[in-house]
Amino acid sequence: MQQPPGFVDPLHPTYVCKLRKSLYGLKQAPRAWFDKLFQALHSLGFTQSSSDAFLFVLNGPQLVIVLVYVDDILVTGPYPHLCQHFIQQLGAQFPVKDLGLLHYLLGLEVHRSSQGIFLHQTKYLLDLLKKTNMEGAKPCCTPLGSKKLDHSGHFLSNPTEYRSIVGGLQYLTWTRPDLAFVVNQICQFMHAPREQHLQAAKRVLRFLKGSISHGVWFTKGSVHLSAYSDADWAGCTIDRRSTTGYCVFLGSNLISWSAKKQSTVARSSTEAEYRSLAHTAAEITWVCKILKDLHYHFSTFPTLWCDNISTISLASNPVFHARTKHVEIDYHYIKELVLAQLLKVKFICSEDQLADLHTKSLSKTRFNYLCSKLPIGLISDPPSRLRGCIRENDKSSKSATVNNFVTVN
């Protein structure tokens, strides 16, 4: 560090300026701001979630939830007057601007109707299509073709374009579960993309061109937690690693999904499914902790659906089989949950396995069938009810209403 030009002290040329407060743009500025906001929320009676550092919940019988992203704050809860009271308290310490009901946040658009809450990214998608000159592209039915991606073909002369497209598509997966697998596939070639990879990325844009206004529905209903777990054994032709896919539902609402390549090669389909089951169980555990922080406790155990009978037997049987000695110890986490009766693992036929959408490339018919089982659609479409997949609990509960979106200047 050096003294600023024009303010050099001739008596102490090696001295530097000491900051009395954090300046915007410095590396320590975000941490200093969050520490100050944390102290303010703590003084108002809020507790930081142990599972999400940016989630704060008001202590006491009445619920107020605060979600923080830098200087954008989302305030929600079943009691609007308490939310308004909190905003007034926060305004006494910071220059707060109340933007009213949440309509737009970080590229996510929120619409409310009598059916529930609809999240989508139409504006962001239109901007992405314009940026990539794909506004006039011809739509296609599926985001990924039947041919698997590999390292054949010519290298791209300008890989920056490919990386920019893939980066933009990654953010779309927040409201588009149908893109999870294909985005996972094209992200694996960021280092040295080829022509076929760019064509695959543009195919995704063509698919999105035909479903611009699609998003995810959230509706009131049962609060039973369930998940679907699947794995495509040795699906990658390059390194023969398997792909893990899961979908987590709260009632009929899809709240978490993932498509991820496994870190090591599985020696059997049972091992691949078992690893996928363990990853899904970890996600369920995290969701349960979040809901516990929100003062909600389940009356029934979460249900995990799997289409591999051998995997279910391995997770439910306390006997350590000799054929599973090669399985890493941390993947037996699922067995501990089952033995502790904190999780139920049940069989589901492969036809109704929703996580199949996140593990492999599917035909048009199969792809559309699985998408119809998910709460994906237009704002004018009624949300899906998972017909034929899971049994919904008849008990209903009050769902929190999004009240206010606040920004701190």
What features would you describe in this structure?
This protein has 409 residues and is of the alpha+beta class. It has two domains: 29-98, TATA-Binding Protein (2-Layer Sandwich); 116-398, Nucleotidyltransferase, domain 5. The chain is built from ten helices and 16 strands. The protein has helices at residues 29-43, 80-91, 122-131, 159-172, 180-186, 195-209, 269-293, 309-316, 333-339, 364-373; strands at residues 46-48, 55-58, 65-69, 72-77, 96-98, 104-105, 108-113, 116-120, 215-218, 225-232, 243-250, 253-261, 303-306, 344-347, 376-377, 401-408. The strands form three sheets. A six-stranded antiparallel beta sheet has the order 1-2-3-4-16-5, with helices on one face. It has a five-stranded antiparallel beta sheet with strand order 6-7-8-9-15. Strands 12-11-10-13-14 form a five-stranded mixed beta sheet. Strand 1 (46-48) and strand 2 (55-58) form a beta hairpin. Helix 4 (159-172) runs parallel beside helix 6 (195-209) and helix 7 (269-293) crosses helix 8 (309-316). The longest helix is centred in the C-terminal third of the chain and has 25 residues, at 269-293. The chain is globular, with a radius of gyration of 24 Å. The two termini are 29 Å apart. Residues 390-402 have low confidence and may be disordered.
Keywords:
single chain, 409 residues, alpha+beta, TATA-Binding Protein, Nucleotidyltransferase, domain 5, 2 domains, six-stranded antiparallel beta sheet, five-stranded antiparallel beta sheet, 16 strands, globular
Under the CATH scheme, which class of the largest domain? Alpha Beta
Q: How many strands, what sense, and barrel or not for the largest sheet?
A: 6 strands, antiparallel
Q: Which fold name corresponds to the CATH topology of the largest domain?
A: Nucleotidyltransferase, domain 5
Order of helices and strands: HEEEEHEEEEHHHHEEEEHEHHEHEE
What is the residue-mean pLDDT, rounded to a whole number?
86
Low-confidence stretches: 390-402
CATH architecture verdict of the largest domain: 2-Layer Sandwich
